[in-house]
Amino acid sequence: MTVLRVVLGDQLTRDVASLQGLDVARDVVFMAEVKGEGTYVAHHKQKIVLVLSAMRHFAQDLLGEGVRVDYVQLDAAGNSGTLAGEIARAVKRVSATRVVCTYPGEWRVLEMMRTLQDELGVPVEILEDDRFIASRADFARWAGDKKSLRMEYFYREMRRSTDILMDKDEPVGGAWNFDQENRKPMPASVRPPDVERFAPDAMTRDVIALVERVFASHMGALDRFGWAVTRADALRALDDFITHRLANFGDYQDAMKAGTAFMHHSILAPYLNIGLLDPREVCRAAEVAFKRGLAPLNCVEGFIRQILGWREYVRGIYWHFMPKYADSNFLEASRPLPDFYWTGETKMHCMGCVIDDTRRHAYSHHIQRLMITGNFALLAGLEPKAVEAWYLAVYADAFEWVELPNTHGMALFADGGVLASKPYAASGAYIDRMSNFCKGCDYDPKIKLGEGACPFNYLYWNFLIENEGALKRNPRMGMPYKTLSNMTPERRAEIVEQSSVFLDGLVG
Ligand code: FAD
Ligand code: DLZ
Ligand code: SF4
Question: With 90 as the cut, is the pLDDT of residue 183 above it?
């Protein structure tokens, strides 16, 4: 009776479901580095190093506990290159009589797990991933037959059920949300504190060399790899955020600055998503900082809402609506992804800066993802699947359960409003207000049309014109469509003409 307990690269939590009930005398923990998981989209090199090095450190800790670990390295002889292939080989190698997995983070992997039992001829159990605070069933219960699934109401339920930032039945501070105090532009005099980074140890350096060799053509540089790859270092990263950046998190949450990727953000999503940190402990750490007077309520509530609210909610949306969710294309967007998403070579300074940050750090913060690269993709009508593959590849924290709803639903409105009540479309004025990008740009955010005009300006109106049939009746789009209706036919024609010249010039 040998149980093979599978742990994937984003399940690196000691008490992840498949390790609960582990019998050290009988069971084998199975982990495999496989090329297919690095190439089904061409992941950023830093993301691959983060996952593989964290897997190796996790396996080392298990071995230290006396657990039997069957670990397949990427360059091991006979490595089939796929998770299914390696699980099958391991079942034979250790004569497993049962396989236990934890629910994965992607539909593709779930489908693979579901076919394993027939292929292997041994029972395969897929256990609920209880690292999430709301189970899939909890979300389905909340969704019920509601017509609209807005995050804000889900979040209130989560506050109540976890008792985080609650004063008996009421929210601490008398309100659920303090966003009216948040999201200010950041004055030039404010310099965000440096973010603690972690020097690669010998194990990580080995993985860096391996990834340079095997994934040479992928985006990203490894000379400045600084991600934590152990739980101990991830806890240091949490402490660094709570101590140095949380107190300004809310105020400057939406602000952007050229060359300053991290701002006052936590940079914790990769650790939460691969299992080095638990969402409950991160929320509690922020709550404790508030109780000790180290950070104001608007910042603490704003931060906790991202994890207890958004993170749990998008996971609920993903599993509730997959696999159909990924196939909708409400705005029938079909333009190919321009090459500059990979190279950063564009005259649009905002796009260049965000893509440079992405290449350098496998990171950009939420508003950069949503209102720069996402907004451009929306306005330019880029094909959802190509845009989603890009987001899934380039960020260290990208796993489909969280990437897809954010890209497909929030950034591209491709789900027709399941997640957001209206498209997050904005012109250059918004970018100019929230960043210093426009100062270094060839274009001018104040010029709406013609020579030197910011492309976000005419693309914004062109987007409304192109999608009038789909969006005009959206109650939250009333204002922009009223403005559009006052535009002369000549002005509309000029907008369409300049947009089409610009869009035709985007090479796929
Ligand atoms: P902070 O700004 O410090 O926020 C704290 C934490 O809240 C994050 O670590 C994250 O766990 C959570 N969080 C915040 N916003 C969201 C959100 N919208 N959805 C889910 N969790 C959230 N997040 C991912 O974790 N993986 C992705 O692949 C991903 N893809 C995205 C794609 C697009 C187009 C957009 C608009 C957003 C995406 N996000 C994704 C959400 C968000 O941008 C990142 O979670 C955040 O930028 C990570 O940086 P941070 O850890 O510094 O977050
Ligand atoms: C992202 C990733 C990469 C790059 N490599 C591996 C790997 O070699 N082995 C593994 O078990 N997991 C890897 N992962 C994480 C998986 O892609 C992830 O578990 C699925 O996408 C489900 O979320
Ligand atoms: Fe971006 Fe337009 Fe500003 Fe240039 S002018 S940085 S393209 S918003």
Answer: no
The one-character DSSP state at 196 is: P
Closest ligand to C-alpha of residue 404 is 1
**How crowded is the C-beta side of 123, counted as CA atoms within 13 Å?**
8
Q: Which of 426, 435, 432 is nearest to 443 (CA)?
A: 432
322, two tokens: 């997959």
3-state secondary structure 432-462: HHHCCHHHHCCCECCCCCCCCECHHHHHHHH
Output the CA 2–ligand 1 centroid distance in Å: 39
In the chain, ranges of CATH 3.40.50.620 domains: 2-127
Q: Which ligand is nearest to the CA of 373?
A: 1
CATH number of 2-127: 3.40.50.620
Q: Using only C-alpha atoms, what is the Rg of the chain? A: 23
Band (pLDDT 50/70/90 cuts) for residue 508 is low
Q: Which of 464, 380, 375, 470 is nearest to 425 (CA)?
A: 375
pLDDT digits (tens, 9 = 90+) for 443-469: 999 999 999 999 999 999 999 999 999
**Residue given tokens 């000691």 in the structure block:** 14
- The CATH number given to 136-195+245-321 is 1.25.40.80
Strands 166-167 and 170-171 come out as antiparallel
DSSP 8-state code for residue 335: B
* 392 ligand 2 Cβ < 6 A: no
Give dist(CA 460, CA 76) in Å, integer.
51
Check pocket membership of 362 for ligand 2, CB cut-off 6 A. no
Answer whether 21's CB lies under 8 Å from 116's CB: no
